[in-house]
Amino acid sequence: MKKGNINLTLWMSGLLAGVLVGAYFYRNQEQFAPQQKKLKGVIADLKKTAGDLGNKALKASQEQLKASKDVAKKAVDSVKNAG
């Protein structure tokens, strides 16, 4: 299979799994009512963690971009000085 087809298949299967899990929870919500507070807490923790990871990834990519610009500038300067 081509990479695009594999990605589409994985995306669609993830979407289908999410729909099935959501439908299961909706049909059986009275069973999960006592645990709803715990689930909300876990989801809030996951959101916070995902946000923190996103911020760290953004900061790291910005630092890498700055470092790449500095290296490129030094390379241009060294070529100008050599010529």
Annotation keywords:
mainly alpha, single chain, 83 residues, 0% strand
Could you give the topology of this structure?
Blueprint: H1 3-27, H2 29-32, H3 36-82
Quick summary:
The protein is mainly α. It has helices spanning 3-27, 29-32, 36-82.
Number of strands: 0
Low-confidence blocks of residues: none
- Report the β-strand fraction as a percent range: under 5%
The helix content, as a percent range, equals over 70%
Distance between the termini: 50 Å
Largest sheet: none
Radius of gyration: 24 Å
Secondary structure tally, helices? 3
Rounded average pLDDT? 86
Query: What is the N-to-C succession of helices and strands?
Result: HHH
Shape: elongated
Main structural class: mainly alpha
If you had to describe this structure to a student in words, what would you say it looks like?
Helix content is 92%, strand content 0%. It has three helices and no strands. The protein is elongated. The termini are far apart. The mean pLDDT is 86.
